From TrEMBL:
Lineage, opening ranks: Bacteria, Pseudomonadati, Pseudomonadota, Betaproteobacteria, Neisseriales
UniProt name for this protein: 6-phosphogluconolactonase
The protein's role, per its UniProt record: Hydrolysis of 6-phosphogluconolactone to 6-phosphogluconate.
Organism listed in the record: Crenobacter cavernae
Enzyme class, spelled out: hydrolase
Enzymatic reactions: 6-phospho-D-glucono-1,5-lactone + H2O = 6-phospho-D-gluconate + H(+)
Molecular function terms from GO: 6-phosphogluconolactonase activity
EC number(s) recorded for this UniProt protein: 3.1.1.31
GO-annotated biological processes: carbohydrate metabolic process; pentose-phosphate shunt
Pathway(s) the chain acts in: Carbohydrate degradation; pentose phosphate pathway; D-ribulose 5-phosphate from D-glucose 6-phosphate (oxidative stage): step 2/3
Length: 225
Protein backbone atom coordinates (compact mmCIF):
# COMPACT_ATOMS: atom_id res chain seq x y z
CA UNK A 1 0.00 0.00 0.00
CA UNK A 2 1.35 3.39 -1.04
CA UNK A 3 0.07 6.42 0.87
CA UNK A 4 -0.12 9.93 -0.64
CA UNK A 5 -1.02 12.78 1.74
CA UNK A 6 -2.32 16.20 0.66
CA UNK A 7 -3.24 19.41 2.46
CA UNK A 8 -6.68 19.73 0.86
CA UNK A 9 -9.21 17.49 -0.87
CA UNK A 10 -8.83 19.59 -4.02
CA UNK A 11 -5.07 18.97 -4.02
CA UNK A 12 -5.75 15.24 -3.65
CA UNK A 13 -8.31 15.27 -6.48
CA UNK A 14 -5.97 17.09 -8.84
CA UNK A 15 -3.07 14.76 -8.05
CA UNK A 16 -5.22 11.66 -8.45
CA UNK A 17 -6.47 12.92 -11.82
CA UNK A 18 -2.90 13.42 -13.03
CA UNK A 19 -1.85 9.99 -11.77
CA UNK A 20 -4.77 8.15 -13.37
CA UNK A 21 -4.34 10.03 -16.65
CA UNK A 22 -0.63 9.21 -16.72
CA UNK A 23 -1.33 5.53 -16.04
CA UNK A 24 -3.99 5.39 -18.76
CA UNK A 25 -1.67 7.07 -21.27
CA UNK A 26 1.15 4.69 -20.35
CA UNK A 27 -1.04 1.65 -20.93
CA UNK A 28 -2.30 3.01 -24.24
CA UNK A 29 1.28 2.85 -25.49
CA UNK A 30 1.09 -0.96 -25.45
CA UNK A 31 -2.67 -1.71 -25.47
CA UNK A 32 -5.34 -0.96 -28.04
CA UNK A 33 -7.85 -0.06 -25.30
CA UNK A 34 -7.89 0.42 -21.54
CA UNK A 35 -10.77 0.16 -19.08
CA UNK A 36 -11.08 2.03 -15.80
CA UNK A 37 -13.72 1.45 -13.11
CA UNK A 38 -14.77 4.63 -11.31
CA UNK A 39 -16.35 5.39 -7.92
CA UNK A 40 -19.72 6.95 -7.24
CA UNK A 41 -21.15 9.29 -4.66
CA UNK A 42 -20.47 13.01 -4.33
CA UNK A 43 -16.83 12.83 -3.22
CA UNK A 44 -15.23 12.17 -6.64
CA UNK A 45 -16.78 15.15 -8.47
CA UNK A 46 -13.63 17.31 -8.28
CA UNK A 47 -11.52 14.34 -9.41
CA UNK A 48 -13.88 13.63 -12.32
CA UNK A 49 -13.83 17.21 -13.51
CA UNK A 50 -10.04 17.42 -13.31
CA UNK A 51 -9.60 14.09 -15.12
CA UNK A 52 -12.00 15.14 -17.87
CA UNK A 53 -9.55 17.86 -18.90
CA UNK A 54 -6.48 15.62 -19.07
CA UNK A 55 -4.96 15.03 -22.50
CA UNK A 56 -4.86 11.42 -23.73
CA UNK A 57 -6.54 9.33 -26.42
CA UNK A 58 -9.90 9.10 -24.70
CA UNK A 59 -11.43 7.40 -27.76
CA UNK A 60 -9.56 4.25 -26.67
CA UNK A 61 -10.70 4.41 -23.04
CA UNK A 62 -13.70 2.58 -21.60
CA UNK A 63 -15.15 3.93 -18.37
CA UNK A 64 -17.29 1.78 -16.10
CA UNK A 65 -18.30 1.93 -12.44
CA UNK A 66 -17.36 0.07 -9.28
CA UNK A 67 -20.98 0.18 -8.15
CA UNK A 68 -24.30 1.89 -8.79
CA UNK A 69 -27.79 2.16 -7.39
CA UNK A 70 -30.74 0.46 -9.06
CA UNK A 71 -32.21 3.71 -10.34
CA UNK A 72 -32.59 5.35 -13.74
CA UNK A 73 -29.66 7.47 -14.94
CA UNK A 74 -31.77 10.58 -14.55
CA UNK A 75 -32.19 9.94 -10.82
CA UNK A 76 -30.12 12.20 -8.56
CA UNK A 77 -28.59 9.13 -6.85
CA UNK A 78 -27.39 7.48 -10.07
CA UNK A 79 -23.63 7.03 -10.26
CA UNK A 80 -23.93 6.65 -14.03
CA UNK A 81 -25.61 10.03 -14.24
CA UNK A 82 -22.85 11.52 -12.07
CA UNK A 83 -20.17 10.16 -14.40
CA UNK A 84 -21.94 11.48 -17.49
CA UNK A 85 -22.31 14.96 -15.98
CA UNK A 86 -18.86 15.37 -14.45
CA UNK A 87 -16.40 12.97 -16.14
CA UNK A 88 -17.61 12.31 -19.69
CA UNK A 89 -17.20 15.96 -20.60
CA UNK A 90 -14.44 18.09 -22.15
CA UNK A 91 -11.67 15.85 -23.53
CA UNK A 92 -13.09 12.75 -21.84
CA UNK A 93 -16.32 13.08 -23.85
CA UNK A 94 -14.70 10.76 -26.41
CA UNK A 95 -14.52 7.85 -23.95
CA UNK A 96 -16.86 4.85 -24.13
CA UNK A 97 -19.13 4.42 -21.11
CA UNK A 98 -20.14 0.99 -19.84
CA UNK A 99 -22.94 1.39 -17.24
CA UNK A 100 -23.64 -1.29 -14.66
CA UNK A 101 -27.38 -0.58 -14.58
CA UNK A 102 -29.48 -0.56 -17.74
CA UNK A 103 -32.64 -2.18 -16.35
CA UNK A 104 -33.23 -0.98 -12.76
CA UNK A 105 -36.32 -3.17 -12.46
CA UNK A 106 -34.50 -6.26 -13.76
CA UNK A 107 -31.04 -6.32 -12.16
CA UNK A 108 -30.56 -10.03 -12.83
CA UNK A 109 -30.45 -9.20 -16.54
CA UNK A 110 -27.71 -6.67 -15.85
CA UNK A 111 -25.75 -9.22 -13.81
CA UNK A 112 -25.94 -11.66 -16.74
CA UNK A 113 -24.85 -8.92 -19.16
CA UNK A 114 -21.89 -7.96 -16.97
CA UNK A 115 -20.82 -11.58 -16.55
CA UNK A 116 -20.87 -12.07 -20.31
CA UNK A 117 -19.64 -8.76 -21.67
CA UNK A 118 -17.87 -6.52 -19.13
CA UNK A 119 -14.40 -5.71 -20.50
CA UNK A 120 -11.29 -6.62 -18.53
CA UNK A 121 -10.53 -3.85 -16.06
CA UNK A 122 -7.08 -2.25 -16.04
CA UNK A 123 -7.47 0.36 -13.30
CA UNK A 124 -9.88 0.82 -10.40
CA UNK A 125 -10.57 4.08 -8.60
CA UNK A 126 -12.80 3.72 -5.56
CA UNK A 127 -13.75 5.28 -2.26
CA UNK A 128 -14.67 4.07 1.21
CA UNK A 129 -17.40 4.89 3.70
CA UNK A 130 -16.87 5.61 7.37
CA UNK A 131 -18.16 2.10 8.12
CA UNK A 132 -15.35 0.60 6.03
CA UNK A 133 -17.52 -0.29 3.03
CA UNK A 134 -15.91 -0.30 -0.40
CA UNK A 135 -18.00 -0.02 -3.53
CA UNK A 136 -21.36 -1.28 -2.30
CA UNK A 137 -19.85 -4.06 -0.20
CA UNK A 138 -21.36 -2.98 3.12
CA UNK A 139 -20.37 -4.56 6.46
CA UNK A 140 -23.91 -5.58 7.39
CA UNK A 141 -25.35 -6.38 3.95
CA UNK A 142 -26.34 -10.05 3.65
CA UNK A 143 -24.66 -10.36 0.23
CA UNK A 144 -21.27 -8.94 1.22
CA UNK A 145 -19.64 -12.27 2.06
CA UNK A 146 -20.54 -13.45 -1.44
CA UNK A 147 -19.09 -10.27 -2.92
CA UNK A 148 -15.84 -10.70 -1.00
CA UNK A 149 -15.37 -14.39 -1.85
CA UNK A 150 -12.13 -14.97 -3.76
CA UNK A 151 -13.70 -17.70 -5.89
CA UNK A 152 -16.87 -15.80 -6.83
CA UNK A 153 -17.28 -16.39 -10.59
CA UNK A 154 -19.55 -13.38 -11.12
CA UNK A 155 -18.45 -9.92 -12.24
CA UNK A 156 -21.10 -8.27 -10.06
CA UNK A 157 -23.76 -8.96 -7.47
CA UNK A 158 -26.93 -7.30 -6.22
CA UNK A 159 -26.64 -5.82 -2.72
CA UNK A 160 -29.32 -4.65 -0.31
CA UNK A 161 -27.61 -2.22 2.10
CA UNK A 162 -29.26 -2.22 5.54
CA UNK A 163 -28.79 1.49 6.26
CA UNK A 164 -28.69 3.17 2.86
CA UNK A 165 -31.34 3.85 0.21
CA UNK A 166 -31.73 1.78 -2.96
CA UNK A 167 -30.54 -1.68 -3.86
CA UNK A 168 -27.16 -1.68 -5.59
CA UNK A 169 -25.12 -3.49 -8.19
CA UNK A 170 -21.47 -3.74 -7.22
CA UNK A 171 -18.51 -5.38 -8.86
CA UNK A 172 -17.16 -8.29 -6.83
CA UNK A 173 -13.81 -8.27 -5.08
CA UNK A 174 -12.66 -11.08 -7.37
CA UNK A 175 -13.42 -9.01 -10.46
CA UNK A 176 -11.94 -5.78 -9.08
CA UNK A 177 -8.69 -7.55 -8.20
CA UNK A 178 -8.14 -8.52 -11.83
CA UNK A 179 -7.11 -4.88 -12.33
CA UNK A 180 -3.45 -3.95 -12.59
CA UNK A 181 -3.69 -1.07 -10.10
CA UNK A 182 -6.10 0.23 -7.47
CA UNK A 183 -6.52 3.84 -6.34
CA UNK A 184 -8.37 4.55 -3.09
CA UNK A 185 -9.52 8.15 -2.55
CA UNK A 186 -10.49 9.07 1.03
CA UNK A 187 -10.67 12.11 3.25
CA UNK A 188 -10.79 12.65 7.00
CA UNK A 189 -8.86 11.17 9.90
CA UNK A 190 -11.57 8.64 10.77
CA UNK A 191 -11.29 6.99 7.36
CA UNK A 192 -7.50 7.06 7.51
CA UNK A 193 -7.60 5.18 10.81
CA UNK A 194 -9.87 2.49 9.35
CA UNK A 195 -7.61 1.94 6.35
CA UNK A 196 -4.53 1.76 8.56
CA UNK A 197 -6.21 -0.63 11.00
CA UNK A 198 -7.37 -2.78 8.08
CA UNK A 199 -3.76 -3.74 7.53
CA UNK A 200 -3.88 -5.71 10.76
CA UNK A 201 -7.24 -7.48 10.60
CA UNK A 202 -9.01 -9.13 7.67
CA UNK A 203 -12.64 -8.84 8.64
CA UNK A 204 -16.08 -8.45 7.13
CA UNK A 205 -16.58 -5.68 9.66
CA UNK A 206 -14.40 -3.61 7.35
CA UNK A 207 -14.74 -4.82 3.74
CA UNK A 208 -11.94 -2.40 2.84
CA UNK A 209 -9.55 -4.74 4.67
CA UNK A 210 -9.85 -7.23 1.79
CA UNK A 211 -8.46 -4.59 -0.56
CA UNK A 212 -5.72 -3.47 1.83
CA UNK A 213 -4.43 -6.97 2.55
CA UNK A 214 -4.54 -8.46 -0.94
CA UNK A 215 -1.32 -8.86 -2.91
CA UNK A 216 -2.68 -9.08 -6.45
CA UNK A 217 -2.81 -5.38 -7.37
CA UNK A 218 -0.86 -2.41 -5.96
CA UNK A 219 -3.05 -0.11 -3.87
CA UNK A 220 -2.37 3.63 -3.82
CA UNK A 221 -4.20 5.75 -1.24
CA UNK A 222 -4.87 9.43 -1.91
CA UNK A 223 -5.79 11.08 1.38
CA UNK A 224 -6.49 14.57 2.68
CA UNK A 225 -7.57 15.45 6.23
Amino acid sequence: MYWHTFHTTDDAAQALARAVAAELAKRLETQERVTVAMPGGRSPVAFFEALSCETLDWSRVTVTLVDDRLVDEGHEDSNAGLVRRHLLQNKAAAATFWPLVTEPSNPKADIARLDAELPEIDLVVFGMGEDGHAGSLFPDAPETDEGLAENNPHAAIIVTPPNAPHQRITLTLARLLTAEKLYLAIQGRAKAKIVQASGWALTGRWPISYFVQQAKAPLEVYWAP
